[in-house]
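Why does this matter for the project? Reviewers at the last site visit asked to see concrete outputs rather than summary tables. In response, this paragraph embeds two records directly. Each consists of the residue sequence and, immediately after it, the corresponding structure tokens. Nothing has been edited or filtered.
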Amino acid sequence: MNKYSLIQAFKVTIPVLFGYLSIGIPFGLMLVNAGYPWWLAPLMSITMYAGAGQYMAVGLFSAGTPLTAILVTMLMVNIRHIVYGLSLIEPFKKVGKWKPYLIFALTDETYALLTGTAVPKGLNPGKFYGAIAIFDHLYWIIGSIIGAIAGSLIKFNFDGIDFALTALFIVLLIEQLRKTKNPLPPIIGGGCSVIAFFIFGPDNMLIASLAIGIAFLMILQKPLQKVSNSKKSEGENDA
């Protein structure tokens, strides 16, 4: 991997750097506060690397939840990655030996970067995407280590910490809107979330909102593609 690939990938991942430090540190704090040793935070971040799943795992472990229930819960929480993978089949054909790691490291934030960033001219797609995934993974590991060590030494007030993950998604949404200039997909997603919230309740809305959102996007695929293409054409003409 050459220096230019690393520099370009780092520039792209700067929003995730600040976001992952902001949510990785609370994860480390939460883990230690639950009574677990600090070294478990980097171990989970290296081998599990599931973001929201790691937050949930701490609560499930602390509550003594059976392993089978934990596995099913994690599957439900991360089932959206099936859709992510399907949409990346074509781009990942060009990544070569990086494919296994890219599949493992495909978090929501990394997916947003991979789908919203064009490979710079002259760069190998596998090395560029791989560098993005590695940087994001390192940010998360570093954040969890900082939080775990700090939590072992200092007592913290955890009020409001759970909003950090939401804040990162908002930042990534803004970046996506700036690049695509198409507000319809997030509007559809937000509307589906509201519908699922009122029909299924806050505890059961995640899978329902994803299913409704995917159905709407499939139905409206052609109109959305036309809007996206027209926005790109306008941007090229302005340039």
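We now turn to the second protein, recorded in exactly the same manner.
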Amino acid sequence: MNPDLDEVAKDPAAGNIDFFRKIPKKLVESRVGKVWAPNFYYRTANVQVLMLTPIEQLRKKLPAPPQPYSM
């Protein structure tokens, strides 16, 4: 996340953001691609999470599919 700090500062709920202006951000490589670092937490209305895992590990944790009921 690399927001425009001038836009963030316009929100009265943001408070004093001078601390964030002193720390430059850089694009760095990660296991999920390029990300901005260091990352800070801001107030937001939307959150997006990306989680990667092998499908076989997920299948082991899922319950068995329901079987049809017959009499």
